[in-house]
Amino acid sequence: MDSTPSPTPSSSSPFDMVSSALGRYVPQAPAERAARPQPAQDLPESGRQDRILGVVNLDKDLLVLRRNLDAPVFAGLDAVPGSPFVDLLPPGDVPTVTRRLRQVLETGEAHVARIQRLRRDDGSELVVSLSILPAAAPQEGLTVSLIAMATRLHLYAAETAIGTSLDIGETAQSLAESLLAWGDVAAVDLDFTVWTGEGVTGQAQGRIRLRRAALVPDRVWPEGYVTPGDDLPSDASRLLAQAVRRDDTPQTIVMPDRKAVERVLGSPRVMRALVPGDRSAGVACIPLVLDGSPPVVLGVAEVWRRADSPFRDSELFDLQELVARTAHHVDLARQHQREHKQVLALQRRLLPRAGGDTMEIASVYQPATPDSAGVGGDWVNSFPLPDGRTALVVGDVVGHGLGAAATMGQLSMEARALLSAGLAPDEVLERLDETVTLLDDADSGLAAGYSALGSTCCIALYDPVSHSLALSSAGHLPPVLVSPDGRASTLAVRPHPGLGAEFALREPFAVHTFDVPPGSLLALYTDGLVEDPSVSIDEGIGMLADAVSAVHPWDGLQQAARHVVSTLAPLHERDDVTLLLARMIGYRKGDTATWRLPARRDAPARARAHVRALLLRWGTRDGTRDNAVLLASELVTNAVRFATGPVTVRLIRSGHALLLEVGDTGNGRPRLSRGGLFDDAGRGLHVVHKLTTRWGVRWTDAGKVVWAEVMR
Fold it and tell me: Taking Cα atoms as reference points, which of 164, 165, 178 lies closest to residue 319?
């Protein structure tokens, strides 16, 4: 017996495949139909009545080529070959569906499960789930698959569609599109506190403020009609709130005709704002209720239909069920909106405010879209250090949302405190590495399954006197430096596994030093700016280097930063984008002086002579000059007394202050003591403390530098 399977017809197009799934072949010429089997004719009558699938084949001009709409549920759909497919649509839906059809033709990407109304010959409408499938070759057109939506299937599909977005506007729009199956116009109006993501309470209804969040179909509306983004008139908000919440109990109300609508709404202004047209005269208002004690009304959904087609009780039950099922999706979107705003506010606070006399700074932060996983942990900061240098910090904390925001804020503040205390960049990263490890400890760190392991950070310290940049990186992408002649290059930084790496992978953080002449431009950024699935990360960094090198020295830096971001990430969606541009200015040669003195007994006297002579040339006031000379004497005396090796004295004229630095090879930390009036130990530091506005210590590879600031 031959077991070879008999050949079966092959489906060469989406139309053939979908049509075959219907249990019926594509209609052929009469002779061909007689020669080919007709499987669907063997089905029992009940099987044909239960069929809800249909398919239409379109050419590239969106005209019907073939159709298989033989199921009884599609009776009355006039899809004649050669006719435009959009003739099946309500007029208000034609622009939107046409745009979707064209988009699938152009991109080749399917558009699946759109809830859509189709017009029958008798004026009634059929709700279907419409999917648009591209052909293998663009010239072969499109296949439109139709699934007639039974009530229960429609409720399930609608709830599934509404819960797919965390953006409150998109959630409301999905709800309105689903409600359109029961009427001609559907709108969703949300309490303003819900729209903005604030907390919801059972506030007094007289104070409710509604904002239109969604409206379908998408078309031009009469003047005065409230469209998405507009606030409802205060009278309309109050009336709707009172209507759906009688005796403090949320309930659905129906105004069956225009007389009832006019009686409830009253004023012509409110009528123009809420009634979509003369024909859509009846309305069902369904409250979006958040269960609780007492229940909280999040907003109102309105479904308008013609007065000659009143709502049946079964339809009202279905409407209430759909809104009740999806109200919690609106609240989830509200909570996400609130979290998004909180994290975004923290991000904004961490952005650099302005540069100083020695550096010009500009920054751009572009958050991810609200319906993504949440605002990420990107952060940048820049601040002047007390010793005259400027710190630039950029980091990218793993994850999104409040957990990432909390870690981001903690690391940013810790880095600033440690750098202000005089620690070197590598030492700061070592402590941040320990912090990330501690935060990952379930007993002492962040809970709820969040982990910051693998976060990255880059720290750069700019010295405006030596025009140098000291840089350390923990797994971060390399900065881009543009020299004054316009050449751009990435700074060579030794790779590091990032913060919180396993002990076996940890390596000492290195400090790299680069020359940055005045006029140099430094770009620090996060991966969202240069990552693109279509190119490698190296190509993305190269594109950034090209964009930054095109910044002219006379260009406004903030405008240039915005231009760079818009060029590289014009349609950013899934990840945050952060860019910090720093233009190096530094001190002029005439505003600084450095002396290197041997650590001998005459070093203080020589320091006094050098400082006094320079301040006389600068024309400094007598009082300021005397204080600066005394400071130099005390600091050099301490250096000679408690350290070995040469002593370096540096004097800087900066704005309205003088900055004096004394470096030595000692590693002891000068501290103020509470000694008595005649105690010799510590007397010099008390003098320094009294004469300065601030003073401190920073550590170097060779020892330390004690700095002091005195006002001019």
Answer: 178
Three-state SS for 164?
A: coil
Q: What is the 3-state secondary structure (H, E, C) of 519-549?
A: CCEEEEECHHHCCCCCCCHHHHHHHHHHHHH
Q: Sign of torsion, CA 126 127 129 130? A: positive
Give the integer Cα–Cα distance in Å for 429 and 407.
15
Helix (H, G, I), strand (E, B) or coil at 592: strand
313-350 helix and 168-179 helix, angle to the nearest 10 degrees: 170
| Cβ–Cβ under 8 Å, residues 366 and 569 | yes
Residue whose structure tokens are 């379109």: 58
Q: Which residues neighbour 534 within 8 Å (Cβ) at sequence distance 6 or greater?
A: none
Tokens at 71, concatenated: 């199921």
The dihedrals phi and psi of 439, each to the nearest 5 degrees, come to: -65, -25
Measured distance CA(471)–CA(392) in Å, rounded: 9
**pLDDT tens readout for residues 130-171:** 889 887 776 678 888 887 765 555 666 666 667 666 778 788
- In this structure, what token pair is assigned to residue 2? 């031959």
Q: Write down the number of H helices and E strands in the chain.
A: 18, 27
Count of CB atoms within 10 A of residue 622's CB? 9
Residue whose structure tokens are 């489906």: 11
In 3-state terms the chain splits into helix, strand, coil percentages (rounded to 5) of 35, 25, 35
C-alpha 471/C-alpha 390 separation (Å) is 12
Q: How far is 260 from 271, CA to CA, in rounded Å? A: 12
Tokens representing residue 593 in the block: 């002086």
The rounded Cα 708 to chain-centroid distance in angstroms is 43
Chain-centroid distance, C-alpha 507: 33
Among residues 179, 461, 496, the alpha carbon closest in space to that of 318 is found at 179
d(CA 542, CA 530): 9
Provide the b/e sequence for 168-193 (b: ≥16 CB within 10 Å): bbbbbbbbbbbbbbbbbbbbbbbbbb
In terms of phi and psi (left: phi > 0; alpha: psi -120 to 50; beta: otherwise), the region of 197 is left
Q: What is the pLDDT of residue 140?
A: 75
Q: Is the pLDDT of residue 301 over 60?
A: yes
Distance separating alpha carbons of residues 58 and 68, to the nearest angstrom: 12
* Each residue's pLDDT tens digit, 174-194: 888 888 878 888 899 888 877
User: What's the full length of the chain, in residues?
Assistant: 712
Question: How many other C-beta atoms lie within 10 A of the C-beta of residue 49?
Answer: 12
Alpha helices per DSSP H over 351-487: 401-420, 425-439
